[in-house]
Specification:
Distance between the termini: 33 Å
CATH class of the largest domain: Alpha Beta
Number of helices: 21
Bound molecules: zinc ion
Largest sheet: 9 strands, mixed
Helix content: 25-40%
CATH superfamily of the largest domain: Bira Bifunctional Protein, Domain 2
Structural class: alpha+beta
Length: about 700
Amino acid sequence: MQVERRRVTLGSELVQELRRALDVVEEQRHRAGRLLCRRSRDRATNAPGKAAYPEVMKVVLPDGNELDLPDGATGLEAARAIGPKLAEQAVLVRSNGHVRDLRLPLTDGEPIQILTTRDRDDPDALAVLRHSSAHLLAEAVRRLYPGVKIAIGPPIENGFYYDFDFPEPIHEHDLERIEAEVKRELAEGREWTRDEIAAEDARVRFEGGDEPYKVELVDTAEGPISLYTQGDFTDLCRGPHLLNSKPIKAFKLTGLAGAYWRGDEHNKQLTRIYGTAFFTQDDLDAHLERLEEARKRDHRRLGVQLDLFHLDDISPGSPFWHPKGMVIWNTLEDVRRRENARRGYVEVRTPLIYDRLLWEKSGHWEKFREHMFLIPEGDRTYSIKPMNCPGHMWLFASTLRSYRELPLRYAEAAPLHRNELAGALHGLTRVRIVTQDDAHIFCTREQIEDEIFGCLDYAKYLYDLFELQARFELSTRPDNKLGTDEEWDFTEAALQAALERRALQYQLNPGDGAFYGPKIDLHMTDSLGRSWQMGTIQLDSQQPARIGCRFMGADNEEHTPYVIHRALFGSLERFIGILTEHYGGAFPFWIAPVQVRIVPVGESHREAAYDLAARLAPHRVEVDDSDETVGKRIRNAEVEKIPFTVVYGDAESDESLAIRERGGAQSSKSLVEFRGQLATLSPWQVGAEPSLTP
Ligand SMILES: [Zn+2]
Ligand SMILES: [Zn+2]
């Protein structure tokens, strides 16, 4: 499952596709090797003078028991050997984290897990179900739209898609007809068969069928090619697939979009049809309910409803923050400043615009220039900074430091600009202006573990504060790493030790580190169960050397410090977008832009209402003395998700206030009691500081 998760967190579907393509190559190479080994063994067995007898092999089941099977037995045969019921319900074999088609041979000694229709929440089981559903979709579309060309149809998080090149454009309302055709296929029932053929034969076959996209895929594939056929439809595919369509108990098409062939805007734009499928109708219903809830919580919608921010094409991907949005922003800034101070960070402020010389030295000019906004001036070229690191390192390098100054923790939340493609922009979660809660920690080799520990502790503190479930992933040396293996052994061990010392569960992503050092990515799961990649903690031994950061060690020699890049919220823009959806706009009291609204019943109560507001300071209190009815004003406060509404009329006084909590609970409290209650609702007050984990 590690592999699947990692795909999802990488976010873009294009990256997922690339990873899948790599997996195909990987699997084919693996299988080619295995087949070769079996063949040479067969030859040995059949060698003259040797008795020919059927060989047996073993596989290890999840309970630790071994299962004897004839050599070369498939996953399906293993399932049959365990029991006919299991064989009927089987959908997939999983071994060492990799998934495999039931029709493929198992390897002697390998641990296997057979997934069945009862594994209805397992992402791998769902992926094979959904990918098989994508093939049914392609079959239906080809029948309904003669002349259509088919491209690719992978499973994705929560569903699948298939890309088509339609002779005439289709529209949302056409989906109904296509969905009905797939349901007809399901009622009829489909069986999948799998064949392996030579690339040449596959090419001839798809050329004959006038499927240019498939021909291109054949030409760029490596190793043997496999085909899956159901009904009269054959697709080029590495699998795995279901044996038949019986497990697909719920199918729905969910949308239509444009998508460039192979994700490249220079290629033709195809039509992408999205859908989803489940093992039960109940699961589909629950999924649709979650989607509806997510739609209601969409931060772009709530941003307007709650008057937090808006976006305008006058500056694409750059939000205009309204006063209420700025209250949330500044609350997060307060948390950042306060925690930074408590944890030994120092605030710095570095320029926004730099000569290209800096970017050449840092390596960004070569690797990141297309995402940078450039400003030519005379014979110089400047760039608005897309990240803080080079500036912080330039500042560090402005003088020769002493080891006594280390660790030196520079913090800065400067606005960064990245030239994201206009088409990729999305609300607050994909923007061109990025304000990170950024810091760079300059430290010695010996200090790495403690500093990483400190970052992890800080991250855990923040995620707990916002009631988000944190998940940590450690990524280790990639193929294109810089530095020696000994160096990587040391740095990876330091990160691992810090994770273990802070008692954090983490997932290992071998080979996924940056070329300059290992990293820990921080993910959060929100109240709807969705996972978001947030901050990152990265160790870097390369950039400080490129920019010339030096310190004088205790040994009287000059050394290059290590730098830990870390952002824990990630970007404030994105974090506020995610928080808005996480809370559904009902921000906790301490973040809520308006904490208390007072509704004076009549004209004669206005003065008392304003007087009460003043006495509730420093809380954020508003008086709604508009001409609306009391009922309407109370409803407005509900719609704006304000934590407390106080209705003030003839019966009210300091001794007795009529208080309505968000959600409807009502009570009567004295002013003193109410103030006492509000005081407990901020996560920190004087004297209630959370303690730092030692
Ligand atoms: Zn397929
Ligand atoms: Zn950095």
